[in-house]
Design goal:
alpha+beta; Glutathione S-transferase Yfyf (Class Pi), Chain A, domain 2; 2 domains; 4-stranded mixed β-sheet; 9 helices; 51% helix; globular; glutathione transferase activity; Glutathione S-transferase; maleylacetoacetate isomerase activity; Glutathione_S-Trfase; Thioredoxin-like_sf
Amino acid sequence: MDRPTLYIANKNYSSWSFRPWMALTGLGIDFEEVLIPFDDAAGNPNIKAVSPTGRVPLLQHGTLKIWESLAIIEYAAELYPDAGLLPADRAQRSLARSVSMEMLSSFRALRSACPMNMRRPKARIALPDGVDTDVGRIETIWRDLLQQSGGPFLFGAFSGADAMFAPVVNRFEIYDLVNRRDTLTYMQTMKAHPAWRKWEEAARAEPWIVPEDEV
């Protein structure tokens, strides 16, 4: 099988890149990584040369290009059906897809006010309307799934659904948004995953600074 290539952006800031990278790396899927950093507000022309949308992440497998983080995870789940990217049970797969899509399409207040930043020291900020609602909904999703599965991850074993929420774990921590014990325990579980640690180490070593993401 041809080795796929995953194009990503800055590990310190790119929440969209983090998701499929965490999923593939966390489940032992071999791929080539190509990092194209953000350069300015107009976008890096090297990204536009690779991606039809002018954005990353993008997975290239042979001549096929797949963009959007959830689409990449879904494609990889078909390509590597035994890797565990999705739960084996059909009902649980459907639930994993539902919460992953909700993460992809919702929580705009949280995304806007609290950008991912792996290097940011933990500190609170003034939060606009809507952030607390987003945080509460995400905590409810995590709590319900962990109670149902028994943990330590959302569907028991680590899966693509956990990867979809990985950037939120960083946001919750660095902006000091949560204090529930079950939420903090899940966050610690995610941060202890070897794939998380590998990404964070690389992120902290990056030289690039994006001022608009330095809240």
